[in-house]
Amino acid sequence: MQAAIGIDIGGTKTAIGLVASDGAVLATTSLPTDLTISPYDMVDRIAEAANRLMAEKELLPADLQGIGIGAPGPLNTKLGQIAEPPNLRAWWGFPVVDAFKRHYDARIVLENDATAAALAEKQAGAAKDADHFVYVTISTGIGAGIYSHGRLLTGSTGNAGDIGHMVVDPAGGDCPCGQRGCFEHIASGTAIAREASVMLGRPVTTKEAFELALSGRDAAMDQLVQRVFRYIGIGCVTLINTFDPELIVIGGGVSQVGAPLFDAVSGYIREHALNPSGRRTPLVPAALHQDAGLIGAAALVQTHY
Ligand code: ADP
Ligand code: ZN
Predict the structure, then answer these.
(1) Residue 257 alpha carbon, nearest atom of ligand 1
(2) Where does the signal peptide begin and end (predicted)?
(3) Which of 44, 158, 188, 216 is deepest in the core (most CB within 10 A)?
């Protein structure tokens, strides 16, 4: 049996999986991403964990199709390096592909995590039948993977789809990137919790902000949530006008809120997308959650993307 190792490196944890060539997830594990040790040592730990999975499944190095890595951007896939991800500071400039080459004599492919998750939705999720779609993740931050004309659109260095820093409201406050009113600064889970906490004068989680808003008991929270839905609508309309997708897939923790978000954003799209077919673009929830990152990472070496 042939299989690929999929690795999804995140700011808090790294998910590792073995995925068979038919797409079946054979085994998974995860490690805390330890930012206090050298990234080389962290790569050693990841390789050790992956090798344990291989041994469990009685796979030999010759059975390995390759190693796919999804990592937060900014990165540089041309150089095989992590660039400057805010939540992975210890890894800035780290040559992650070369570090894995010390462990494997196999093909190693690096893409940004949202791009890998988009490929997972194409392979095994909500976008199986689409040749043109955008996967948007609304979580701690906001990012996207773009699939167009039957291929991933990665850009020259793997950073295409970094829509979190697309300005949707220049009056929306200072984003750490230096611009004002970036999509992620005003519509991510982090932004909702931050705004809600300021408004209520105490720490409020994103989930609680939604619960208060949707219970109809808190008009201020309701306004905040409706504003966020409108910003997400603005972001989606720009993606529709730019890429003309057949559908938009929404994933990430905030999408768990479900129908209220999907209904409000679809409503905005129906009113504001420029072309008549764009106004009917379906907005669908991601089908893969936990394993999307590693399935997509494995798919990077299993498919021609
Ligand atoms: P990560 O950003 O690490 O990939 P997630 O995709 O789980 O993690 O996104 C985390 C964000 O989603 C947090 O801001 C969290 O508050 C928010 N979130 C998680 N679950 C829910 C939920 N059920 N409803 C609303 N927001 C949620
Ligand atoms: Zn920004």
Answers:
(1) 24
(2) none
(3) 188
